[in-house]
Amino acid sequence: xxxxxxxxxxxxxxxxxxxxxxxxxxxxxxxxxxxxxxxxxxxxxxxxxxxxxxxxxxxxxxxxxxxxxxxxxxxxxxxxxxxxxxxxxxxxxxxxxxxxxxxxxxxxxxxxxxxxxxxxxxxxxxxxxxxxxxxxxxxxxxxxxxxxxxxxxxxxxxxxxxxxxxxxxxxxxxxxxxxxxxxxxxxxxxxxxxxxxxxxxxxxxxxxxxxxxxxxxxxxxxxxxxxxxxxxxxxxxxxxxxxxxxxxxxxxxxxxxxxxxxxxxxxxxxxxxxxxxxxxxx
Amino acid sequence: xxxxxxxxxxxxxxxxxxxxxxxxxxxxxxxxxxxxxxxxxxxxxxxxxxxxxxxxxxxxxxxxxxxxxxxxxxxxxxxxxxxxxxxxxxxxxxxxxxxxxxxxxxxxxxxxxxxxxxxxxxxxxxxxxxxxxxxxxxxxxxxxxxxxxxxxxxxxxxxxxxxxxxxxxxxxxxxxxxxxxxxxxxxxxxxxxxxxxxxxxxxxxxxxxxxxxxxxxxxxxxxxxxxxxxxxxxxxxxxxxxxxxxxxxxxxxxxxxxxxxxxxxxxxxxxxxxxxxxxxxxxxxxxxxxxxxxxxxxxxxxxxxxxxxxxxxxxxxxxxxxxxxxxxxxxxxxxxxxxxxxxxxxxxxxxxxxxxxxxxxxx
Lengths: 282, 363
Fold this sequence. Notes:
Order of helices and strands of chain A: HHHHHHHHHHHHH
Radius of gyration of chain B: 25 Å
Number of domains of chain B: 2
Domain ABC transmembrane type-1 (chain A): 64-267
Shape of chain A: globular
Radius of gyration of chain A: 24 Å
Pfam families (chain A): BPD_transp_1
Strand order of the largest sheet of chain B: 6-7-8-3-9-10
Structural class of chain A: mainly alpha
CATH topology of chain A: MetI-like fold
Order of helices and strands of chain B: EEEHEEEHHHEHEHEEHHEEEEEEEEEEH
Distance between the termini of chain B: 33 Å
Helix content of chain A: over 70%
Shape of chain B: elongated
Transmembrane segments (chain A): 17-41, 62-88, 108-128, 140-160, 188-209, 216-239, 251-270
CATH superfamily of the largest domain in chain B: P-loop containing nucleotide triphosphate hydrolases
CATH class of the largest domain in chain B: Alpha Beta
Keywords (chain A): Membrane, Sulfate transport, Transmembrane, Transmembrane helix, Transport
CATH superfamily of chain A: MetI-like
Number of strands of chain A: 0
Distance between the termini of chain A: 54 Å
Largest interface: A-B, 23 and 32 residues
Structural class of chain B: alpha+beta
Main location (chain A): membrane
Oligomer: heterodimer
Helix content of chain B: 10-25%
CATH architecture of the largest domain in chain B: 3-Layer(aba) Sandwich
């Protein structure tokens, strides 16, 4: 006779799964989900008609247009420059490479206000760059170009840091194979290398764009903040809040949130698309 | 296309990867470069492909100086060890790649490319895989696609780097026969790199044994097996038992060794070494001999035993169990060596490692 055995329980290697998951979820709810939910609820309280009136007012539309245009300019610039930067950091060896690699994170670490101040100082009419550009008839500070510049500065790491690991993982024998098959350098890049990094690159650009739309600190110094001219959406929300117009602030913030969510979802779709033909090839 | 390589050297930092390679490959020949890892065989293959460049030497293909040509202008088919299939392209697009990237003037029409790819896929028996992606294929299927992609441009020379290295043993044997068939059907000059002797000997017309950046021997299976040209080849071919002997009038003698089965050789008198395979050694009970049996085991068909001398020398012996004399642990035995290679001692061989070279284990 065999005595009734105790039920077998699989033991986890790491203890405290319940505790650690619980803590994580609690943190996520307190710091991320509740504020977003509060914002959405606040927006819902306004009512659709009032919401639409706020969001479609001339000043708000102008602010959205300026934010999106500057964000698009900054993202286009970062898309090209970030790709080049990632390429250089992965493919070439040169003295100071590690330093350059580390410098790439400065926009993440630097207070955005500091970035805004130094950019303003450099590009103002009597600054180093500004005096040269001013002589050429180009004004950066207090124009949409200044906004785009500040956005580009703060969002460049997103492109570099998304493309870099994918480029590092890219098997160089793929390029060698293409070369033995008679492909010219630009054919190797356009047909073999670029398709491999395209999803990561697009995802990086999307995140950079999302970051640009939400940038505030760096921009307020350089933009001049003239309504209808150089006033960004985040600043308009801030101004409404200062005026105790909570509804106005919440409605504009909600639109920004919607942009960010759409871009985030897009970025995730691109990331999973990137993983589709991964694994296996080596 | 015939290939002539002469005086080729190559170093990476301080390592001399190739130390003066001379090799001729005839038009339509199938040649294996065989050697352990680090012998320079893959480097040599990549130099022929134009993916590496030598420091000195010449590379002539059908009379043309290939060191003046970029890889893309050599029209070679190169099959990579891990296939290097383009992951974002279907099998069909992978095979068509070499045709698609041709300059506009030479490029076949879309319909011609499609027809050519279909024909190749049928020839390689992969037509049912046309729309799959590399990640959805098994190792053997990827190998076939990689070969199809290389063959599509009608290469003048076909180069394969460890073509079966990443496959299971059963698939390897199949693909080997199949590759031989492909070679015969296309008639292209083919060179492949391998560390697997069986693969090299079964597949190739001629085998080039490489060790430490030099060509040690070129020949056929029986030649290389029975008459290794150097201690390196002997060890690489499995003659792991290495014993000091004395040569006199072409005959070798050694303490406790019966070497009468070895033919007389035209070698100078003096100290020498013999290299024998454990399976070519027989242990014979002899109360006067200096060897003793220190371990004894059986696989049923074969006896595996280790004979030891008082100075610590150990010799592995594998002999058929049927007909073997009764042996026990501690019994004194003489070693009768049925076949062995003999090399007179010289400075270079002394410097060579005494430990037997293990066969590289396939990853």
